[in-house]
Design a protein that fits this description.
By secondary structure, the chain is of the alpha+beta class. Helices cover about 40% and strands about 20% of the residues. The structure holds zinc ion (ZN). Keywords: Aminopeptidase, Hydrolase, Metal-binding, Metalloprotease, Protease, Zinc.
Length: about 850
């Protein structure tokens, strides 16, 4: 591409009059985009993609134009610069790509139906209407929509509808906003609405394939989230309504369109009477995330896509702040510690990873910025560090000023640091830039050298890494006053260890609370001191020891065999956060054993030993009034016992299946997946397989769908695996948005690995054609990388993906993933004997 200048430099829109006519039957969009703005040059650039431009006028007079598909542009020649009204007539195809304006398909009582919805982030508004499709090009919008309307259909958009005339729906003028946040949808919808304390109308919309009660949970969370943010930000919600819409076809998790947030059905609707607590927590955090964006992202928007992290990191932190406030009993920060923290620490340890802040211009590269482990999880950890340093009072004060200064406009990271710095008196920018601009993170090594307690920092790598001399400004959060608040240097000597230890009376620790983005390597003296009373540590500290030790083992800084006895040490914990971390770490041992080997038998015996007491304590059935921790722990210990081939647990699951065979959806949601998978694995046949696949197609309950997917992909039957893979490209059974989970399931099944790997290599072109434009496309490669662990697979992976290295948006992923598999293969080779010995000893 040549002309990579921002189009906003040539034309600055102030107001759009959009007329869009969508015909579902002919799959054609036709419309007129009338844009009033300031022409900065006599040749202006307006975005379009996949469009046929019929005519262009400027101030009512025809002008010369040319379409430039390489640059997704229309070049328009004007008689002069200055205030101009452009009017562009166009047509565009209505495609199934889940980008731009697109149909979502579903069945209602056996009848095939569709809803039309939109997805404009990042650069897809230009597929719906000609525009300056850049976040900085904020304008107001008058939207008018016509469609092949049927009786009873509903249409919604960012703003309320003001009138309907001759089948055209006219909406109120929007506030000043970015194109990527425009949204509308229509179809045969049901809804429930309520009002916040401040009078904002809140609604949840979904297809009528859902039971009405499936809308209730989201409505309650959305209402209370908006009330929370209005208070926390000290800034009113700026629109008259906040609609939440579940779309049957949806590529990402959810999208924060201003006033009309769209969601994957799985992240909005749920059966309030039978959904597991962890699923409810997940849905609540997704809703709170999108609603955090209504201010941070929508009201104040990043100036350009390089500051995407500003939107996402912030919303990712705020979703936990909000849910913690509205559902304090959930202890939702524990979910942050078991999900976001390890995700960020794993990904960010591979050399070649992107920094949180990345320069970017090419639209194909913009989508690859959405590295969820970095931009979302690591970025959120950075902001959690900031929050811990500032405290909530200064954070809120700084945010209020930030919104007041930049509302309806754009901002950069520096603007946020300036506002938070003013509110707190800290040089936030200086601290944060070391985290924002440098990829990776440090391991802080704590040692006693000649009696002196000493800290040093080095970049931590899993696999080969080039030490680039990076230093971070590390908020240490030590329990010893001798440690600095911010550790900036390569090393620091804290003083005489014996004296410090005696004075404090407790083992030395840093990163207490696990809120800073680094890991700690204690020497033997210090670690032994911590572990000798590990049972008395708080749950987060226990999780942190497990996570950090596993990472150190992955990075070959300690032996993996040293991690094994830690699992036994923490196995009796009644805290879900510890058990989650414990079974995450235990699951990592599976890579060291071959299927059906003597070593696998030993590992299964170890899993049985870890889980036996907890299985006996918790059983399959929830007790009335049991704690959240017990509810969340049960699935982990049952899953471990099933992996262990525990005969009693298998028999109990089989019994539960038999007594509920005619109402499988009604099995308790937190154990249903295990019961179904157990049945498929040990007692399955084609009839059951077909029955579950039919249920998958017909149910509207996303949790039940997930459970069925988990069960069917675990079949050991080669014929059924073939049959299943045959459904991968049948969108009536498996929607493209859900395919990755199915693919992963079969690939992770040792009996299905070869077939799944063959499928993706043979049908890569089909996959590219179907979901290739999608920002999640590269995660198919990540999924494969998560599973491969042998030299043979590594060679096959390279043979297949190395030729794709030059593909825009894929280079980094392929390069990193080769490193990840290479280091795993080497780790297994080096540590296998020691790990299996440690497992045998632990038994
Ligand atoms: Zn977001």
């Amino acid at each position: 591409m040549t002309a990579l200048k921002h189009f906003y430099e040539t034309f600055q829109p102030a107001h759009y009059n959009l007329y869009i006519d969508v015909n579902r039957a002919t799959k054609l969009i036709s419309g007129t985009s009338t844009i009033t703005g300031d022409a900065k040059e006599t040749t202006v650039l307006i975005h379009q993609k996949f469009m046929t431009i019929k005519a262009v006028t400027a101030d009512g007079k025809p002008v010369t134009f040319s379409t430039d598909n390489d640059n997704e542009a229309i070049h328009i020649t004007l008689p002069q610069t200055g205030e101009t009204t452009l009017s562009i007539d166009y047509t565009a195809p209505l495609t199934d790509s889940m980008m731009g304006i697109y149909p979502s398909y579903y069945e209602l009582n056996g009848e095939k139906k569709q809803i039309i919805g939109t997805q404009f982030e990042t650069t897809f508004a230009r597929q719906a209407f000609p525009s300056v499709d850049e976040p900085e090009a904020k304008a107001t919008f008058d939207l008018a929509i016509k469609f092949d309307e049927q009786p009873g259909e509903t249409i919604i958009a960012n703003m309320p509808e003001k009138r309907e005339e001759n089948g055209v729906h006219y909406f109120d003028t929007t506030v000043r906003m970015s194109t990527y946040l425009i949204a509308f949808a229509f179809g045969d919808l049901q809804s429930k609405t309520t009002k916040t304390k401040s009078g904002v109308e809140v609604g949840v919309f979904a297809t009528k394939a859902h039971q009405p009660k499936e809308l209730d949970f989201a409505l309650d969370i959305a209402k209370r989230s908006i009330e929370f943010y209005e208070d926390f930000y000290q800034t009113p919600y700026p629109l008259p309504h906040s609609w939440q819409l579940a779309l049957p076809d949806f590529s990402a998790g959810a999208m924060e369109n201003w006033g009309l947030v769209t969601y994957r059905e799985a992240y909005l609707t749920l059966d309030p009477d039978n959904t597991s607590l962890d699923m409810k927590q997940l849905v609540a955090t997704v809703i709170a995330h999108e609603l955090a964006h209504q201010w941070f992202g929508d009201l104040v928007t990043m100036k350009w896509w390089d500051d995407l992290w500003l939107n996402e990191s912030f919303a990712n932190m705020m979703e936990y702040v909000a849910v913690d406030a509205i559902e304090p009993d959930w202890h939702i920060w524990e979910l942050f510690q078991t999900s976001e923290a390890p995700m960020a620490l794993n990904r960010d340890a591979t050399d070649g990873v992107q920094s949180v802040h990345v320069q970017v211009e090419d639209p194909a590269e913009i989508d690859s910025l959405f590295d969820s482990a970095i931009v979302y999880a690591k970025g959120a950890r950075m902001l959690v560090m900031v929050r811990a340093l500032l405290g909530d009072d200064a954070l809120r004060k700084g945010l209020k000023a930030y919104f007041a200064t930049h509302k309806y406009g754009n901002a950069t990271g520096a603007d946020l640091w300036a506002a938070l710095g003013d509110a707190s008196g800290l040089d936030v920018g200086a601290i944060m830039n070391s985290w924002l601009e440098q990829p990776g993170y440090p391991v802080v090594t704590a040692t006693v050298n000649d009696g002196q307690l000493t800290l040093s920092q080095d970049q931590f790598f899993v696999g080969d890494g080039k030490e680039a001399g990076h230093l971070w400004q590390i908020p240490l959060n030590s329990n010893y006053d001798a440690a600095p608040e911010i550790f900036k240097d390569k090393t620091v000597v804290l003083g005489d260890y014996a004296q410090l230890r005696a004075a404090s009376g407790k083992p030395f620790r840093v990163n207490v609370g696990n809120n800073s983005h680094f890991i700690v390597k204690y020497d033997d003296t210090l670690l032994t001191d911590i572990l000798k009373d590990a049972a008395s540590l708080d749950a987060i500290s226990q999780l942190q020891i497990l996570q950090d030790q596993r990472l150190l083992a992955e990075g070959r800084q300690i032996s993996y065999a040293a991690v094994v006895p830690l699992l036994t040490q923490f196995a009796a914990s009644k805290r879900a956060v510890v058990n989650t971390a414990l079974y995450q770490v235990a699951g990592n041992l599976k890579k060291f054993v071959d299927p059906e080997s003597a070593e696998e038998k030993q590992l299964q015996a170890f899993f049985n030993k870890l889980s036996a007491d907890q299985v006996a304590r918790l059983g399959w059935t929830a007790q009335k009034g049991e704690s959240n921790d017990d509810q969340l722990t049960r699935p982990y210990v049952l899953s471990a016992a099933l992996y262990a081939q525990n005969k009693d647990v298998i028999a109990d699951a089989h019994k539960l299946f038999a007594t509920n065979a005619d109402k499988l959806a009604e099995l308790p949601a937190d154990t249903r997946g295990f019961i179904l998978a157990n049945e498929i694995k040990h007692f399955g046949n084609e009839t059951l397989f077909d029955q579950l696949l039919a249920d998958y197609r017909s149910t509207s309950d996303a949790s039940y769908k997930n459970d069925i997917r988990g069960a069917l992909t675990s079949t050991p039957d080669a014929n059924l695996i073939t049959k299943l893979i045959g459904k991968f490209e049948d969108a009536d059974t498996i929607k493209p948005q859900d395919l990755r989970g199915w693919f992963r399931g079969v690939l992770a099944n040792e009996k299905g690995e070869q077939a799944a790997w063959d499928w993706i290599r043979n049908d890569w072109q089909w996959l590219d054609d179907t979901v290739g434009g999608d920002m999640e496309f590269t995660t198919y490669i990540t999924v494969i990388t998560g599973i491969f662990r042998t030299p043979e697979r590594l060679a096959e992976f390279k043979a297949f993906f190395e030729p794709k290295l030059p593909t825009p948006g894929m280079t980094r992923e392929i390069t990193m993933d080769i490193k990840v598999i290479t280091s795993r293969v080497a780790l297994i080779e080096a540590e296998k004997t020691a790990v299996n010995q440690a497992i045998t000893t632990a038994n």
